[in-house]
Amino acid sequence: MLYSFTEVSWIVFQKVGFTMKAKTGVILVMLAAFVYVAAQDAEAEQNVVEELLVETLVKPETCSIMSEMGDTLQIHYTGKLLADGKVIDSSLSRDPLVVVLGKRTVIPGLEQSLVGVCEGQKIKTTIPPHLAYGKRGYPPTIPADAALEFEVEVMSLIQVTPWQKMVNDVFPLVCLGLVPTLLGMVGLYLYNKANAQRPGKKAKKRKNK
């Protein structure tokens, strides 16, 4: 079948036009996918926290006494997932939480954030996963490798007394030092007891002879 020049031109135009449209569509799809992936990566980077961040929201006019290890704090807090802001726990509807610094009663990141604060201070702390619940998470509330954000208000601060501090610092060391001594005394007692029994057995054998 023979086509006129006009018909051939129209067929070529249609094919070229279709091809260009197809290519344009593919390019647009790829561009949209690239933008989506870039947005997801940017959001993921924002949610990746590698170190503990502490921001002071409210600080009282006088802050002469600051918390140290061994002190007892009463705090109100609200904890959230950093990724989506979902509240995971809050003390606002109950009594303040009592935290003794150094006793590991809360996650490490929160405890570290509470060192160096004063009564009446309010802070916001961003806690990386390795100072929170790590790779295990806390199902079903906290997923694995989740960064957390806490807003904390220090309601009261009770300083540890010098005597308590000495006991807390020295007593574990004394106990650790006493362990070898006690083991040695037990070993010596058993050794002496074993030696004391041997002469009696020998004497009994002689009588039998």
From TrEMBL:
GO molecular function: peptidyl-prolyl cis-trans isomerase activity
Catalytic activity: [protein]-peptidylproline (omega=180) = [protein]-peptidylproline (omega=0)
InterPro entries: FKBP2/11 (IPR044609), PPIase_dom_sf (IPR046357), PPIase_FKBP_dom (IPR001179)
Domain of life, per lineage: Eukaryota
The keyword Transmembrane helix is annotated on this UniProt entry: yes
Entry's EC annotation: 5.2.1.8
Top-level class of the enzyme under EC nomenclature: isomerase
Pfam families xrefs: FKBP_C
Keywords of this entry: Isomerase, Membrane, Rotamase, Transmembrane, Transmembrane helix
Domain PPIase FKBP-type: 70-158
Membrane-spanning segments: 170-191
GO CC annotation terms, alphabetical: endoplasmic reticulum
Protein name: peptidylprolyl isomerase
Highest classification ranks of the organism: Eukaryota, Metazoa, Chordata, Craniata, Vertebrata
